[in-house]
Amino acid sequence: MDGQTPSGTAHADSAPLTIIRPSGRWWTLCVSELWQYRELLYFLTWRDIKVRYKQTLLGVAWAVIQPLFIALTLSVFLGHLAKVPSDGMPYAVFAYTAMVPWQLFAHALTEASNSLVANERLITKVYFPRMVAPMSAVLGGLVDFGIAFFVLVPFLACYRIVPGASVLALPFFALLAALAAFGVGLWLSALNVQYRDVRYTVGFLVQLWFLLTPVAYPSSVVPERWRAWYGLNPMVGVIEGFRWALLRTGAPPVGLLAVSVAMTAAILVSGLYYFQRMEDTFADVI
Amino acid sequence: MSQLAIRCQGIGKRYRMGERQRYRALRDTLADAVRAPLRRLRRAFGNRAAGNASRPEFLWALKDVSLEIRQGEVLGIIGRNGAGKSTLLKILSRITTPTEGYAEICGRVGALLEVGTGFHPELTGRENIYLNGAVLGMTRDEINRRFDDIVDFSECGRFLDMPVKRYSSGMYMRLAFAVAAHLQTEILLVDEVLAVGDAAFQKKCLGKMGDAAHRGRTVLFVSHNLLAVDSLCTRAICLHEGKIVMEGPPGQVTSRYLKNWIPASTEVIYEDIGSAPGNEMIRVRRACVRPLNGSPSDPITVRTPFVVEFQYWKLVPEVDLELSVDIYNEHGIHLLTTEMFGKPPAPAGLLRSWFVVPGDLLNNGTHRIQLGVYLGGLTEVLYLEDLLVVEVLDAASELRGPYHGRWDGAVRPHLKWTTEQIDLSSGPAGVPI
Questions:
Q1: Do B195 and B274 belong to one domain?
Q2: Three-state DSSP state, B76
Q3: What is the average pLDDT value for chain B, to the nearest integer?
Q4: ipTM of predicted assembly, 2 dp
Q5: What pLDDT, in 10s, does the model give residues B418-430?
Q6: Which residues does chain A have within 8 Å of residue B117's beta carbon, measured at their own beta carbons?
Q7: Is B131 inside any structural domain?
Q8: Is-contact B110 B92, C-beta < 8 A?
Q9: For the sheet containing B321-328, what is the strand order?
Q10: Rounded (10°) angle between helices A170-194 and A254-279
Q11: pLDDT of B138 above 50
Q12: Does B242 lie in the same domain as B102?
């Protein structure tokens, strides 16, 4: 119709060669393939964000309302009434700085776990590297995070808190939260294809994880000798890092952070391995 | 001779029975884990029947398929439902991996296994064009370049900024197909997507397929529409139970398919009165469908009158048993019911009843025949579902005109049209219409 179609034979030399065999792709192949499918990754992320706020009255404001209201509720009941310590910070600031990365993690984890099942039609009808699905779910979470993060600025200004150079470390902590969510999401999304029990587990898991993470309380309430173990929850490192970067509460939590980074790496690598192993069966089982 | 576009060698795909139908819950696996040792014990003690029954059953959807397709070929793939056609496309498009075998594909592959994959009802037509394009493997530049063509082709221009959930189903399909039709990969895998939209749009889509073929692209085309295969493809294969059973020029393959590979459930026979389906009043001995004229093995097309016959033992005398037949089409639509009311009660013994379904009544497709038996015309005595299954084939006929697509509608009677002039004076050349 437009005369631009490359004729088959002329194109043959540069045409990509696809080899199909029973199973097993190599890791290097997988990375270059993900790069090839970056546009799909972009469009799926874009779709999720668009659809999430279509036909809503408040639209993107929801990305802010949720962490803000939880932080305010926490600060009334836990901060003011129950007198939970907050490392010498105003409790509202203390809670909101933790809610922002927590929401990123919780949201990305939930969406990523559901991503394969939610895209069932796509998976059974077109080919793409399956990892694109949980990846786009995490990216969607990052966009919401960016919006919620901007509200932090007036929030801190209200309390006259000016972060120092440590604020430059923030992207690293956000990345750590996203990677941790991606790692767990890889496990859960692949398991979800086989066992729909995961769907019911995720909400419960996120609630439990919230209680295990120092969002509403400082990690200093955990006795010193167990502190390093506490870092095995990657979100402990993320949230302590966040507070340190923004609020300058004491020395950087290096030990804790090292444990959290190692744990995130372990979850991520094992998740990638499991996902890759199961990937070929998704279309048949889902 | 041009180069090879696709080469398959010994491709096979094995499914676990039921794997596609049902997902596992964790408790099933846990239950299996508990049961497995018990099963092993049982097997060890020699109860072989129990062991065999619990072993998972496998089904080869494809077995040992070897195939070479040259660049520029348009290969039609035909076969009955479950013959492995879609599985083959799914393997070549890498949606699923083969259990065994090896394939090489040279060139970019576009797979159209379904129209509108990835469409999101909340997004607008414009947004869906981009999303669907990306899902099918187009780059953003490609979509931008073809955007106007796509919109023109879809005839949905005015509704471009409306969410597609407010589209009529026809508009939705047209837009979806328009995107698909502009997918310009070197290799195109197409599964039955032409069966959408109204007749005029289908015609346009078939034209587009023909275009693709003329441009030297390689096309694999799965279809039940033998006429389309005949007219569009340069070669055809026929799959049966996962194997290639025929290969050759499309005309030859489709006509042999018509003769040889028609479903076998046009006849059922139960010789033993004890085990024949039925009860203490009636038992069915034989049921069959055959063309009214010619040999019983001839194909039944939309034009063929055919006989539906039942032989049965009537076990009770002096009772008025009436036979009634329901015919359903492949979409589950109840097309008709016919009953043998008003006949005097037959004596007991082996009886035969039949009726003729006239030609030019049923549309093409699979028809399921259910037999009901009623006492005194009211009380149901027996109901046998899917006793017979008839494949009514499409037939090339002068009634179609130049149109090759699927003929819509539950039935396909041959109605006589009449046109006459009623006023000579209106209109300049006497052609008002």
A1: no
A2: strand
A3: 81
A4: 0.83
A5: 998 888 776 555 5
A6: 121-122, 125-126
A7: yes
A8: no
A9: B334-339, B321-328, B365-375, B379-392
A10: 30
A11: yes
A12: yes
CA distances from A230 to A134, A240, B199, B427 (A): 27, 11, 67, 91
CB pairs under 8 A between A and B: 152
Are residues A121 and B117, on separate chains, in Cβ contact within 8 Å?
yes
- Looking at the fold, whether B150 and B167 belong to one and the same domain comes out as yes
A36 touches B: beta carbon within 8 Å: no
CATH of the domain at B354: 2.70.50.60
For residue B112, give the CATH number of its domain.
Answer: 3.40.50.300
Going from the C-alpha of A164 to that of each of A158, A248, A249, B142, B371, the distances in angstroms are: 17, 7, 11, 47, 84
Is B96 in the same domain as B121? yes
B310 and B229 in a common domain: no
The average pLDDT across B356-365 equals 90
Does B184 sit within 8 Å of A283, measured CB to CB? no
pTM beyond cutoff 0.90 = no
**How far is A63 from chain B, CA to nearest CA, in Å?**
20
Domain that holds residue B198: 60-260
- Taking CA–CA distances from B22, the nearest residue in chain A reads A285
Q: Which of B23, B28, B208 to mutate to test the interface with A (most CBs of A within 10 A)?
A: B23
**Residue scoring higher pLDDT (A100 or B1):** A100
B132, part of any domain: yes
Contact A15 B72 (CB under 8 A): no
Residue B174, burial from CB neighbour count under 10 angstroms (0-12, 13-18, 19+): buried
Residue type, B163: P
User: Mean pLDDT per segment of 10 residues, for chain A of length 286 residues?
Assistant: 38 65 63 87 91 78 84 88 84 89 94 93 90 94 89 85 85 94 95 87 93 90 85 92 83 86 95 88 83
* Last residue of one domain, picked from the residues B377, B392, B407: B392
For residue B354, what pLDDT band results from cuts at 50, 70 and 90?
Answer: very high
Q: How many domains does chain B have?
A: 2
User: pLDDT tier at B68 (50, 70, 90 boundaries)?
Assistant: very high
From the CB of residue A13, how many other CB atoms can be counted at a distance below 10 Å? 8
The answer to whether residue B297 is domain-embedded is yes
Q: Between chains, do A284 and B20 touch, taking CB under 8 Å as contact?
A: yes
Q: Is residue B11 part of a domain?
A: no
Residue B311 and residue B229 share a domain:
no
